[in-house]
Write a structure and sequence with these properties.
single chain, 230 residues, alpha/beta, Rossmann fold, 2 domains, 7 strands, 19% strand, elongated
């Protein structure tokens, strides 16, 4: 069933939507008059899309399984995620109370609309340049960073993000990322060995567990679980 977001987006691009559903290909497909060569190409493209979709969902399910089990096992009452994105991963989560932060105002708006009926979830725009947390006014049992670290190519942004991630936590920090130095630097990503940085800058935390990826061919990331020393 179409939700309010879908209906709003469709209304805002009416001409494009009409052209999409009234395309000659769509009409011929519905009428059964599509040429065989075009139909064959369509099936191949759809098959490839479904393969990649299934891989992406498998990763999302794996992450949710690990995180939900951790929250339940350790009695986590509050979760803060730095880099919540559009909420697709969150849709699989089972958290008692959740705050999602993201640098994208669009992502925050999408999450607020998607989870509008869920009082356990709230969202806030985040910009490390201006984000302050005096006297640790905000603190959570668990803070999360999922697929974020290797997108932070600027060193000052990376450093401030880690500061916020660990200072927002009163007990646990879970990072899902790579932990290796990049051979070459891409414009949109930079892989680093971040665990030595955490050990040097946040000695009050210790790395207690690493969980390997169940789907290593799809992603080089794994889970790193840090606990605040008592």
């Amino acid at each position: 069933m179409a939700g309010p977001l879908f209906n709003r987006l469709k209304a805002e691009c009416g001409a494009t939507w009409d052209a999409y559903i009234d395309h000659p290909f769509v009409r011929a497909l519905g009428a059964g008059t599509l040429p065989e060569a075009a139909f064959r190409t369509y099936l191949i493209q759809d098959y490839l899309f479904l393969i990649h979709f299934a891989r992406a969902y498998a990763l999302a399910a794996f992450k949710a399984e690990v995180l939900n089990a951790f929250v339940k096992e350790h009695g986590v009452a509050s979760v803060c995620e730095l880099g919540c994105g559009d909420g697709n991963q969150l849709g699989l989560a089972e958290y008692p109370a959740y705050l999602g932060l993201d640098v994208s105002r669009t992502a925050i708006a999408l999450c607020r609309e998607r989870f509008a009926g869920d009082s356990a979830k709230s969202f806030m725009w985040y910009d490390g340049r201006y984000f302050v947390n005096p006297e640790r006014f905000l603190s959570f049992d668990l803070t999360l960073s999922l697929d974020v670290l290797y997108h932070l190519v600027e060193e000052d942004v990376f450093a401030k993000y880690l500061d916020d991630l660990f200072r927002l936590s009163r007990r646990w920090v879970i990072v899902y990322s790579t932990d290796k130095d990049d051979v070459g630097r891409a414009a949109h990503g930079l892989h680093r060995r971040f665990t030595p940085v955490v050990a040097a800058r946040f000695p009050e935390f210790r790395l207690v567990e690493e969980i390997p990826n169940r789907h290593p061919k799809q992603s080089g990331c794994r889970f790193f679980i840090f606990e605040r020393r008592r």
